[in-house]
Amino acid sequence: MSTTPDTNIVFRPVVVRTPAWITLTVWLWRLLVAVVKTVWRHPVACSGLGLSAGSVYALGVHTSALLFITAVCAVVVWAAIEPVSCSRRFKWPAVAWWRWMWVYRRRWRGVMAVAGLGRSIRGRVYLPELVKVSCDRWADRVRVRLLKGQDAEEWAARSGNLAHGFGAVSCRIEVPKPGWVLLTFPRRDALAQVINDLPYTGRPVVDAVHIGLREDGLPFYLKLHGTHVLIAGATGSGKGSWEWAIVGALRPAVREGIAQVWGLDPKRMELSYGRALFSRYAATPVECAELLEAAVATMQERADRYAGVRRDHEATMDDPFIVVMVDEIAFLTAYVPDKQIRARVMAALATLTTQGRSVGVCVVAALQDPRKDVLSIRNLFPDRVALRLDEAEQVDMVLGDGARDRGALADQIPRDPRDPSVGAGVGYVRVEGAPTPIRVRAMYVRDFDIRRMVLREAGVLSHPSRDDTPRLASDDTPDLRTDRREGDRA
Ligand SMILES: Nc1ncnc2c1ncn2[C@@H]1O[C@H](COP(=O)(O)OP(=O)(O)OP(=O)(O)O)[C@@H](O)[C@H]1O
């Protein structure tokens, strides 16, 4: 190093001559790792290539071509007989491979750099590792290993960059295990169409009721037994369809006598339409307060009987599961002019939501305005649904902190003044214990369907049989019967 002014400083790195065999060994090791990784990630493609090469070598070109044509015919027959399993084995792995190569791998470095998810340390660039891409009919799922010390929240904050970077409409972030994230990029919207009907099983179910569809095309089951559900949405967002879908799904259990739905309808424009479907019904503020207090009394009577004998509730004819359905709860908790009624309603709701779960009482409440001064007990509802909301801040008010960053864009659910069904009934659900909200759509229960349920209740129409064929909205609506097994697993 020179100490003379105006002279360039020159560093001379020490050159260590590496023997050729060490360099070759390192290269061979890297090649081996790359081959093993490729086989691990693309087993179908690699075994296909391996088998083809082996058969050309062992049997000759003509016999191999014959075998290849026979295999293609077998796959075509398989696809015709069992399209779902064939797609799972061949089509979706092939699509996943293509999207891995063409979309994710090709754009990975650029998107990571622009989104600020890579790091450059002393001139060396470190990128999160793109590990696996899997596809189904609706979405791409990309598994990524984070950089050591990286936080998944940072990814959640960049979900917009990721969606635009990989050409998707949105990106949802989940954390399957520490150090990993799972990115979901929808390719087709399973919820774009109105769901007019769901398969009718006739099974009396109270724990989780089938009321719609998830964004991945699987059936959506809403848990009721052992929880309370808050449904928040702006006017016209489809709160009514959620309430009626729940009422409809509980019908078999109500008929068996193991469930009851109690309706509180302060607006008198929603639940009154199917009044006969409710075991108990209240409309005026005084009646509503009385009905809530009756639910508290039932709950306490059960708690007295269960104390020291059992710790949970099983729906029976003697102790049916009770769903207390409150439409426009804010009217009762904030807007009703009589202070005393408001206090009675709040006290009853707080008691039910804190103590009702284990004795078989569930509160399902709908409201338009999720602010705390309107419903101070919103945190007592373990499961919450955000339908279309007016403002971005309301999303976290309903679903909890960070929900919007994790992809619950309830304020961006589309709306079309000419067609009220656009985006109606679509919402994000956050269930207790799961930080990532899921996007779902409830079936649309028309006035005609409610009348039909009422007529069945009155004995004018017969009840549908268990093997009633579901009427689907269109050929494009996912076949829920095929997916039901997977939905159960999910
Ligand atoms: N699940 C759904 N699928 C498709 N369209 C729906 C669905 N639910 C509701 N709609 C459409 O949206 C309109 C408004 O629905 P609904 O009255 O249930 O909304 P809401 O949130 O209860 O409104 P409000 O708070 O004003 O009562 C309905 O008339 C219907 O056209």
Automatic annotation (TrEMBL):
InterPro entries: FtsK/SpoIIIE/SftA, FtsK_dom, P-loop_NTPase. Residues 217-396 form the FtsK domain. It comes from the Bacteria. Keywords: ATP-binding, Membrane, Nucleotide-binding, Transmembrane, Transmembrane helix. ATP binds at residues 233-240. Residues 461-490 are annotated as: Disordered. GO terms for molecular function: ATP binding; DNA binding. The chain crosses the membrane at residues 20-40, 56-81. PANTHER family: DNA TRANSLOCASE FTSK, SPORULATION PROTEIN RELATED. This is S-DNA-T family DNA segregation ATPase FtsK/SpoIIIE.
